Amino acid sequence: MVNQYPAVTHTFIKREILALERLDVQIIRVAAKSGKALVDPGDIEEERRTFYLLRRPLGLIQAAGLMLILRPRSLIRSLVMSLRMMRRSDRGPILHVLYLLEACRVASLVRATGAAHIHAHFGTNPAEVAMLAAELSGATYSFTVHGYDEYDKPEFLGLRVKIRRAAFVAAVSHYGRSQLYRWCDGADRGKIKLIRCGIEQQFHHAAGNDETPCEAARFVCVGRLCREKGQDILIKAAALMAAAGHKFEIILVGDGEMRAELEGLIATFRLSEIVRLRGWMSSEDVRREMIYARALVVASLAENLPVVIMEAMTLRRTVVATQIAGIPELVVPDQTGWLVPAGSIEALATAMTECLLASREKLSAMGRRGRERVLALHNIESEAAALADLFATKACPKQTALQSSPPLSTAVQ
Measuring CA to CA, which residue among 129, 131, 128 is closest to residue 140? Predict the structure, then answer.
């Protein structure tokens, strides 16, 4: 279960689902809505296979009526839980009512398909819907915490309650697990499991055996154009480098609410020939941009552990990144890349300049070590196997419905 799926920024979820299916775990994809501007063929296929809760609003009302008839006590308990979630929430009561209606629809799907467990991605509203749907259906639930949003406002999200009621909770980095430790009861710490995001073999093989570094004076930055990702700081660092006489270019892949502001900065600093905004791209095109770049730049002010860093390092590209959150778990100074203080324009410009002037031998050694580190820590097959084992042992030890449920198209007709 995801709020929006597929989405151009959620490739890691798609990889996990496909890896679980290769292990014969049957997955029913459920989302509130589809992502926008889908350009990747794999995303378009995932959209076809996903059940969307909000495409037929009347179905939510019908599901609530069905729950009232079949499980009235569970519906009352779920309503009480929903009211408690509203107390400190930064979202209005209407949204929480919508989450309860969505949960009724999910519970109906669980009953129709015989699914044994509900797993949500993100500890925000998907985890709340999963928690309520579990109460309504009798299934167990779990969720994966990915981003910094959950750590910014854990009390508003009721994160402690969600963890307490879950069969387990997956963290994608040591940093992420430490933050969940802060916001759960001591007795629930054992529920927090480290399940990293993984890179599939196809992506590994794209790097081949060619250890030749890219020596082009070219950087790539991939991510949503927003305040947290720090692209404005990157553009100002580029202005310092250009003023110092360095010749280079920066490709910004992504789109978002800060696009107009970033275009204005590029015009103000006269960097139109240096910094280029390319919008969203398919996975294949993003990979190509990384291969043609000397290094990936991550100027973020808030993160967990960006998947784009794993992708770049798999392709033997060095990384210039801010020293925050889980990033140092992969980017090691003088070994796999450069780390700089978050928000420091000067430090970012200095690190990028050092990367720009680095020798072929240094780039090659960094690229090799980075690839080895990612392959050791972020193999999608082993991470999916660990998650599947949690489904079997922590979530639904007495049921086998995950391996035997009928196809969604048949079950919900």
Answer: 131
